[in-house]
Structures
1.
Amino acid sequence: MDLNRASIIGRVVNDIESRTTPTGQTVVSFSVATNFKWTDAAGQKQDKAEFHNIVAWRKLAETIAQYLKKGSRVYIEGRLQTRSWDDQNGNKKYRTEIIADSMIMLDSKGQMPTTGQEGVVNNAKAPEPEEEEINIEDIPF
């Protein structure tokens, strides 16, 4: 069995680039920064940012273009994909991207537009319900 999954939580680094393909499909691309913090051997606090290239298609792309902006905090889940091309000088270039399957907006409600789905947008999943206490007598089995 193979598995190709990527999950990140970070902030949108740049404005969302939205395009439409000749066949009419919407595609967006943007970057998300994630931070790693640690204390080194000398006791100094260290901070390192990683930048992840994100691509989303169709309805998810339309929603991302509408609601995300530079600085938005977001959870992205998808698969890794590396593509290659030759630049103008004939050099081989590579770019690894996360092809997004789902997205959750993590900014507080006062800082983000209302989506009608509590910030959850994906291609197959519904928003998770709020947790409530379960009574043993309510379980049907």
2.
Amino acid sequence: MIRVVLTVLVAVALLAAATPALEDARATTTAERIDAEADRVERAVGGLVAGSVSVADPSLAARTTVTVRVPSGFGAAPIDRVAIVETGASGETVGAEANVAEETSPGPDVALRYRIDGGPERTAPIGPGGTDATVSVDGGAIALRPGGESRLALRLVDDGGPTVRVTRVG
């Protein structure tokens, strides 16, 4: 009987000691998976621009869709919110999300912004995929499902130069 009690106590102590490391691993894995999703969107933008010509009329513009999968489940940390936002030249958010303070670096005009489990907001930049096009969010920040899939439509229009407009589908 004493062996069973001691075994249970040791197991509980080991679990309590390992829990912070498990939470850190979940947060790191979630951040890496979201960064991979931003890379997928960037590759879709690059593929659209490389294989198409921009036109002034959005209804005639080349388009494609991409599905963004935000990690969920046991192996992922809980995500409070995730959105595709436009950033300024300094990397700061513009528009509706502008009141959120965050450390950012100069980069692309669009980013995937998310918050893991009440922590600081993080940014995964979405560039034009190695092309001379720009990327813009059509209609302000696009909120994505924090634990599932969201479909995005990409359109290549001519706004004084090739521009990929990002909108949410459904």
3.
Amino acid sequence: MSFKDLKLIKPLLKAIEASGYTEPTLVQQKAIPPILDKKDVIVSAQTGTGKTAAFAMPILQLLFDKQDAPRRGKKIKALIISPTRELASQIQQNFKTYSQFSNLRTFVIFGGTSIEPQIDVLKKGVDILVATPGRLLDLHKQDYINLDYIETLVLDEADLMLAMGFIDDVKKIERLCPENKQTLLFSATIPYKIEQLAITILKDPERIDVTPTKSVAKDVSQVLYYVPKRNKIELCLHLIRNTIKGNVLIFRRTKFGVNKLEQTLLKNGYKVDSIHGDKNQSDRQTALNKFKNGYVKILIATDVAARGIDINELDNVFNFDMPNVAETYVHRIGRTGRAGHIGKAYAICSADEKNYVKTIEQYINVQIPVETEHPYPLDPKAKPIVHKKKGSKYKKGRKSTASKKKKKRWY
């Protein structure tokens, strides 16, 4: 199927061609036609499947005939709600890419930065607004945003908005928009609360499920190192010093883990930055920009903070902590090896994570090659070490003295 088959107008086709895209992805094939028919849709699709273009292209086409309104007379007709600044910025860039042969004006607003420049642009008028929930409600409360003319409302990464505690804000924003609008909900997963949200705010929606790929890109080579848990940081340093070439995105499971590894690498003289949920939007964007522009070669992130981040020519992905969901592993390493660029996926696994590896290998139907030549090998038969708390009164074969004393009763 080609983009022409989706009945897109010539200015959009011209912009798509200029961007170098030749065929629509599966989510675009499924979502664009019902959106052009002005139906509500609920789409389940992972980041990286082309879902932003799946709503950007049809929205631009639906608004194309209304593009010639005087700039100061422009009213916001499409509103896209995104959970993070990084995602919002990428959505705006997508709209700019596909609207380059039109007069439609897109703008993005988010917190963690000065509000005055955003107010100035809003006063001049925009057609399409991309926003994070908090900043949108703030500017609406100050009467700088009018949602009375919204024709299409998009809720992007709905499950992440749920995880970040934005659902009540999303419901409030939806109520501020006209009742007869078109609503599009996009989410990587559809948990129960998102299902309930969809039932509440969407009208007879078309359900689109794009099954996430279980395969690993052919341009990504994988390697696995088994290591005692206590030696994980030492092995990480060894690989960065001797094996890994180019930039590397390191995934850790927790914010504490991200901070701990970042401090270790900084002390060892490496240029490194990090992103996680406790960092404000401005700091996260700064860290991402430094990594993208080559000022730092190492970026450490949690999965939630890294959702939707697209980095061109990423050389390496490093799984410091093995993910307990196989789908997450595929999503992580799929960030490298794109557009003909060769990528490498490293993983270090301690004894307590072995079952995760088995699950991942079953999911991708591939046995990940194991590298045994390194300074901190793990005995293949090793079991997780259970550390006893220091000073415990309870020791094997001996009752605690506290248990011998009878409690006095008072009658």
4.
Amino acid sequence: MKEKSTERRGGIAASVEALVSPVAEELGIYVWDVEFAKRGPDNYLTVTIDSDEGIDIDICEKMHRAIDPLLDEADLIDKAYMLEVSSPGIERDLKREEHFEWAVGEIVEAKLFAPLNGTKTVKGLLTAFDSESITLQTSNGDTVLDRKNVSKAKTVFDFGNNR
């Protein structure tokens, strides 16, 4: 079954992030993203957390146990859902300004709504960004992409060149 639309920055996600961010700070971590989405027949609330030292399963469990009762008490979501707490992983979706700021100097893959020079995917070193564009250094030189034309951007880890 096709995944239905995802609610990210407004409404439920923003309210949940405001509620759980202080808990994350108490644990010495921060909230990378919050997403509320319907996948198949179920609704999922995914709280993605991170820290400078990285995230392990124990931290995810601590965060889950700490925010679960807060979410129940706040009653922000009027339908049944599954709560997931996870790390952003090695390849991270870049959605917010602070995500792009974090990723400057990293290899990024941008998927485009429409082809640019015959391709809908551009991969390169993220060298600059602003609210209107992102600049990727590719083998063909700098490529400036209008952010409104980017459907998805994520960091890419080259497993072949890292041990």
